[in-house]
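Technical annex, item 7. During the second reporting period the consortium partners agreed on a shared format for inverse folding records so that results from different sites could be compared directly. Each record opens with the tokenized structure and is followed by the designed sequence. A conforming record, contributed by the partner at site C, is shown below for reference.
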């Protein structure tokens, strides 16, 4: 199967329909086919270690631990595009997240979320759910996307929205009946 990330240049604009069409590199540099998250509810977040919103890691970890047994996971993508607030190496990012927040959810390779070098996953996410006033651009670290079990975007949350504020949305997504084939 051809992955969105395998397509050259302008062809990356080809429509992809779900998260399961993408792949990304883990923080350890391993290629991860995101179809491994089929039938899970996901929260995808661009993160940074030196951001004013960094304490949200604690809330994200609490959500992950609360709902992981029901098929929920947080997927975090470090990003250094906003105020250079994620300058660390993969090893430094992993150590920071472990030591300060006990992060157990998957961390991926540092990426860009805006501009010509944006990871294709983020191009798709932004296209699926625009932000405030229809803006597609990610405005800052800790922008969050909630995806249903079908790999489609349900909702987008701004950086200031704390993880505990959308527990009800996660529960609703977890309780949703799968679409008929």
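Designed sequence (site C submission):
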């Amino acid at each position: 199967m051809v992955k969105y990330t395998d397509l050259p240049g302008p062809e990356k604009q080809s429509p992809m329909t779900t998260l399961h069409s993408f792949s990304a590199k883990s923080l350890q540099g391993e290629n991860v086919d995101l179809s491994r998250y089929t039938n899970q509810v996901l929260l995808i977040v661009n993160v940074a270690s030196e951001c004013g919103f960094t304490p949200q890691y604690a809330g994200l970890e609490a959500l992950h631990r609360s709902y992981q047994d029901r098929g929920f996971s947080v997927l975090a993508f470090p990003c250094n595009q906003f105020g250079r607030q994620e300058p660390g190496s993969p090893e430094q990012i992993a150590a920071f997240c472990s030591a300060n927040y006990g992060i157990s959810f998957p961390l991926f390779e540092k990426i860009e979320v805006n501009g010509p070098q944006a990871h294709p996953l983020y191009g798709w996410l932004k296209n699926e759910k625009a932000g405030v006033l229809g803006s597609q651009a990610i405005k800052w670290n800790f922008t969050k996307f909630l995806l249903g079990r079908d790999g489609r975007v349900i909702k987008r949350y701004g950086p200031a929205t704390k993880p505990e504020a959308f527990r009800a949305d996660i529960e609703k997504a977890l309780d949703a009946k799968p679409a008929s084939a």
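The longest strand covers residues 41-47. The longest helix spans residues 56-67. All partners now use this format for quarterly exchanges.
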